[in-house]
Amino acid sequence: MTFSWIKRTFGLPIIGPAIESAYGFDHPTLEREVFGVKFKNPVGLAAGFDKDAKVIDHMAKLGFGFIEIGTLTPKAQEGNPKPRLFRLPMDAGLINRMGFNNGGVEAAVKRLRERKSDIVVGGNIGKNKMTPNEDAEKDYLYCLEKLHPFVDYFVVNVSSPNTPNLRDLQEKEPLKRLLAAVKAANDAKTKPKPILLKIAPDLTQGQLDDIVEIVLETGIAGVIATNTTLNRDNLATATGQLTSIGAGGVSGKPLKDRSTEIIRYIAEKSGHKFPIIGVGGIFSASDALEKLEAGASLVQVYTGMIYEGPGLVKKIKKGLVRFYQNSSR
Q: Which residues line the annotated binding site for substrate?
């Protein structure tokens, strides 16, 4: 319903510019250059909303600094059976078990060829459900090859909890091999694009240490922290309701503190040697600032926008500008 409404209204001659005027807000203090890419502002739309690159131009009118599409896989796949997305109002969170539902990378490329806005676009890539982990590299390389001319950076997603055994690719040796292969294929291009790794919030300290080591060793551009969590401790939602919902990753406010903790740990452990995009539980300017001060260079929203509405992006940007101006006095 949301996508249908966005596509029907945002592109209309009068309504489109009115939306852009109402939600747009730019300021020089918001501009960033991260991993060689220039951003008008540090607030992005996280992967998972516009999986198939259907509403990039429409969502750009809401004032995002960048939009991440995907997760895209080589072949189209339906994802997990519906229902697969659930609200947790008492926790200001969501549970999803989408399962990389998408129309395939080639269908997305056709839309990317036709997009009109110049907003920065990231391509989040994954493997098909039926592809065994030992062949996962082929899927990531296929998506890289198809998307390369049309996106500004790539995200290797090995952290979704909704594709069987996918998170096994976060283990040290498989991850090192995968990232090295993707990096090599990217480096062979005339104009290589930044490669980032999206990680889970459920990693141990030892695994996070491995992540830092692998990022530095392979020379990829940075990390996105974090994906959804399997941890359901301390949720206000009734246990019976959670049981009836079933499997899936939790996003939104229940993830906020853990994602910030991971950002801070990775930033300090790495000596701030690579950029981090912070995502997880951002519902306000203060939430975004918390991520940035923990060590993130950019932030992304998704669940916060579902609960707070499309005006959240402008509120965050205005709040950041106020903070920066007050700090410089």
A: 51, 96-100, 157, 162, 227-228
What is d(CA 200, CA 230) in angstroms, rounded to the nearest whole number?
9
The Cα 227–Cα 203 span in angstroms is: 11
Residue 115 corresponds to which tokens in the numbers above? Answer: 């997009």
Q: Are strands 298-301 and 276-279 parallel, antiparallel or unpaired?
A: parallel
Q: What is the pLDDT of residues 29-85, one digit of tens each?
A: 999 999 999 999 999 999 999 999 999 999 999 999 999 999 999 999 999 999 999
What are 110-160's pLDDT values in tens digits? 999 999 999 999 999 999 999 999 999 999 999 999 999 999 999 999 999
Q: How far apart are CA 58 and CA 96, in angstroms?
A: 24
Q: Is 328 a catalytic residue?
A: no
Say if domain 2-327 classifies as CATH 3.20.20.70. Answer: yes
CB 221 within 8 A of CB 62: no
Binding-site residue positions for FMN? 47-51, 71, 124, 157, 198, 226, 252, 281, 302-303
For residues 200 and 222, give the distance between their C-alpha atoms in angstroms, rounded to a whole number. Answer: 14
Cis peptide before 201 (omega within 30 of 0): no
Q: Give CB contacts under 8 A, 24+ apart, made by 130-138.
A: 133/165, 133/166, 133/168, 133/169, 133/174, 136/169, 136/178, 137/177, 137/178, 137/181, 137/182
From 4, 117, 159, 160, active-site residue: 160
Per the annotation, binding residues are 47-51, 71, 96-100, 124, 157, 162, 198, 226-228, 252, 281, 302-303
Q: Tell me the domain boundaries of the chain.
A: 2-327
CA quadruple 33, 299, 205, 98: dihedral positive or negative? Answer: negative
